[in-house]
């Protein structure tokens, strides 16, 4: 299942076994997800990137893991800290939707957003309103 490349629980070892940029290139993700990106969107994406701390919700628990996140070229890269040279995982975002969790999802924290694509769902929490808005 190629979608497993998106799974944030992938270990660093399994990431290192993949060819260096195979799962992260815009071309690969567009092909795999049967989508495309306009030249305008591509130009905007390569000119903008964000980095900072986000908390990721663990599946089926109330725990949150603090990660350094770099968002660039339609992809989020996750590191233990800003000093790491290699990401723990990456998440190509083409095709994902961004929403706020509903009341029924029982996430009673401020500044939480949800990324979802098909059956893949990830919850992230910002540490401030400023970071959440970015």
Automatic annotation (TrEMBL):
SMART domains: PH. Residues 47-134 form the PH domain. SUPFAM superfamilies: PH domain-like. Residues 1-21 are annotated as: Disordered. It comes from the Eukaryota. GO terms for molecular function: guanyl-nucleotide exchange factor activity. This is FARP1 protein. It comes from Dromas ardeola.
